[in-house]
Amino acid sequence: MRRSDLFATVSKESVSDASCRSEELMQKAGLIHSYGSGTFGYTHLGKRVLDNIEQVVRDEMDEIAQEVRMNLLQASELWKQSGRWKNFEAEEFFHFENRDDKDFCLAATHEEAVVGMARSFVRSYRDLDLTVYQIGRKFRDDHARKGLLRAKEFTMKDAYSFHQDEEGLNKKFDDMIKAYKKIFEVLGLDYSVVGADNGSMGGDTSREFLACSEAGSDTYVSCLNCDYGSKDLDLEECHECGSKLEAVNGIEIGHCFKLGTEYSDSMNLDFDTETGDKKSVVMGCYGIGVSRLIAAIIEQNNDEKGIAWNSNVAAFDTAVILANGEVEDSALEVYQSLSEKEDVLMYDGRLSTGEAFHEADLIGVQRKIIVGNSFLEDGLIEIEKRNGDKEFVEASEMI
Ligand SMILES: [Zn+2]
Fold first, then answer.
1. How many Å apart are CA 279 and CA 264, to the nearest integer?
2. Alpha helix locations (H) across the chain?
3. Which of 82, 99, 171, 295 is at 20 to 30 A from 318, Cα to Cα?
4. Per-residue pLDDT tens for 331-385?
């Protein structure tokens, strides 16, 4: 994309009202627009980043679950069946009456909706196991703070699994943990996995994924050597590898729960077993805070110049910078040839060369390709990586 065509609102001024580094950089880099009250819009630049993260999540989820889409506008009936409607204030959801005096809410979570959907398809043991997921918006009437870290409207990946028994659930739960680890590694996150034993089902019934960051609101101990973490702050050494633990703050980026039959009992989601008995479906649920991930990645990956995310996340891998108007045709040729393989932003002269450098670093471009004086004099194109490493190559090599 040519910079002169890009809808971007990159700011030259510092952002004074940001409460954390990610909020500051996201506003400065023009990724998001704050509408106030914890609601945000994404510019084209921000949407590209969100799409990249969604794609990483989708690639892993498609291996173990089927993508669906559920309703955001939800009538109260299913919530009354699960017993959660009466808690809507504690559960922080937006609720209202429509013009027919019917109760509705905006989806804060989808356990009720997914059970409602599964109930019309699951009849017998032959229909199980089943795992579905969606990536979409959620609404929570929470105290918004720290930009995308805690917003009233946000994007989540939520998955739900349905099983005949706990053995099926345990297997899917392990598959999810593996997929989550892969996702967070591909996104370039340093994270811990915190287990919780909730008792009734034996063993760990939940796993929380925390990205280590000062901006996080959870305190936990993290192993210096592996991904083990715990909210029991009195521990001295890692249960997995025996290494030292340190107390840190973290951002919750994912959570896996073994729900058991809590929802299927209250909402009558059952199936016929092989022997003809009726049994409640055993469930698991698995969330990832997709829009929050943008903030978590930035919190962990930034430097004095701006955002330093990896090429799986960056809106543009490469910037081609036209640094001398006399070589415009050659710069365009380089841009067009690279664009066939990767996402390239072409600084086509609308910004000064200095401004282009500054902005490319701020928005997290991985490498800058400069077509200017050295091309004019020696036919060489300069490649500069984010860490400052430079090399010169023949134009023909690049094209
Ligand atoms: Zn360890």
1. 10
2. 21-28, 44-64, 77-82, 111-119, 166-186, 262-266, 290-300, 328-339, 353-362, 373-378, 395-398
3. 295
4. 999 999 999 999 999 999 989 999 999 999 999 999 999 999 999 999 999 999 9
3-state secondary structure of 389: coil
Instruction: Please give the full DSSP string across 16-32, using - where no structure is assigned.
Output: SS-SSHHHHHHHHTT-E
Q: Which of 316, 342, 346, 341 is CA-nearest to residue 329?
A: 346
Render pLDDT for 135-158 as a digit per residue (tens, 0 to 9): 999 999 988 889 999 999 999 999
What is the SS3 assignment for 60? Answer: helix
Q: Give the Cα separation of 54 and 57 in Å (integer).
A: 5
- Structure pTM? 0.94
Rounded percentage of the chain residues whose pLDDT exceeds 70? 97
Ligand 1 centre to CA of 263 (Å) is 35
What's the CA-to-centroid distance between 237 and ligand 1, angstroms? Answer: 8
C-alpha 328 – ligand 1 centre gap (Å): 54
| Ligand 1 center from residue 166 Cα (angstroms) | 28
* Listed residue (137, 133, 163) closest to 264, CA to CA: 163
